[in-house]
Amino acid sequence: MNLTERDYCILSKVVTYYVLSRQQIQHLCFPSDKTGRVTRRRLQVLVSSGLLNRHRAEVIYPNSSPAGSVYYPSPKGIELLAEHTGDECLLLTPTQPPIAHHVAHWLAVSDTHIKLAAAIASQERVILEGFINEWDIVNKDAKEPENRFRLYTLLTDSPKLVCAPDAAFMLTVPVKSDDSTVTFSKVFYLEEDRSTSGANQVAASKCKGYAALAENNFHVKHFPATNVQAFTVLCIAPNARRREALRKAFKGKVGSELWRFASADELAAETFLHEPLWYPVTGEAMPLVKPEAVQ
Q1: What is the rounded distance in angstroms from the CA atom of residue 45 to the CA atom of residue 41?
Q2: Which of the listed residues 98, 113, 142 is the one where a domain comes to its end?
Q3: What's the CATH code of the domain at 29?
Q4: How far apart are CA 120 and CA 241, in angstroms?
Q5: CA dist., res. 193 & res. 203, Å (int)
Q6: Which of 158, 222, 248, 287 has the fewest CB atoms within 10 Å, counting from its CB?
Q7: Under a CB-based contact definition with an 8 Å cutoff, are residues 138 and 150 in contact?
Q8: How far apart are CA 17 and CA 118, in angstroms?
Q9: Structural domain boundaries enclosing 186
């Protein structure tokens, strides 16, 4: 079977984002395919040859095809891509099927990741230093999640307290100071909210884990190159009303100062980094990257 460069593009993007809809793949690899016909044909070829996995469901997911199909990596596709690129680290890519009732959540995480990558590509000063998904593997032979997955962190055994972010990334930013430039590398964790639980329940379940993560500086384990002591948790709500409900619920909770909240319908590649869209628990919105860092 002869694969085209755009076939390898599909395999690479699915490895990068883990779960993608046909529309997302079309946007990333086939931007001139206005009808989606070419994208669907190439996806079918890859699925039929076992190089790509497809998950079908009865529901219609946001940003997905009408049939509710989404795509995720297959072992055969990963092996071929690793051989094509010479990158054996790709062999650690997760290939387990997404849990059906979490697919909308993972499409939202992918959508945020796509916007962030586009925002980084649109400028030259801010550098994205890696993006880790929740299911990224560090030791494929380990059984315990704290040893198997890169982000899953067991904080205490009794009572059991864990922190399992949806994703994490690090931004490196130069900041001018007098006649010199200082470079800061800061860690950000991502929590994608889908309004499936009450805001108070979300706050109660999330705050303690991140507070303990900060207290023990465990974010350095995920990104050893960071030189900023504090990290920030980015919570993305589906709309402004839910964002405000979350801010209210998190107010007064332990570690609430770590959190920033945004509405997904306000985030785009053009606004992600430098527009004041990120709200603390109390106070005015601020940009993810301060203006002086990009002048």
Answers
A1: 6
A2: 98
A3: 1.10.10.10
A4: 28
A5: 11
A6: 158
A7: yes
A8: 13
A9: 105-293
Provide the percentage of residues in the chain whose pLDDT is more than 90. 80
Q: Which two tokens stand for residue 135?
A: 């299911």
Prediction pTM value: 0.92
As given in the structure block, the two tokens for residue 50 are 């076992």
Q: Which two tokens stand for residue 20?
A: 């993608």
> CA-CA distance, 209 to 18, in Å (whole number)?
25
Residue with tokens 């053009």: 270
Q: pLDDT tens across 204-228, in order?
A: 999 999 999 999 999 999 999 999 9
Name every residue whose Cβ is closer than 8 Å to that of residue 120 and which is 6 or more positions away in sequence: 126, 127, 128, 273
pLDDT at position 242: 97
User: Cis bond leading into 159, ω under 30°?
Assistant: yes
- Determine whether 129 is exposed, middle or buried from the number of CB atoms within 10 Å of its CB (0-12, 13-18, 19+): middle
User: Which residue type does 149 have?
Assistant: F
165 and 42 within one domain: no
Residues of the chain with pLDDT under 70: 1, 57-67, 292-295
Q: Let me know the angle formed at the C-alpha of 267 by 243 and 185, rounded to the nearest 5 degrees.
A: 95
Task: Give 150-198 pLDDT, tens digit per residue.
Answer: 999 999 998 999 999 999 999 999 887 777 888 999 999 999 999 999 9
For the chain, how many structural domains are there in total?
A: 2
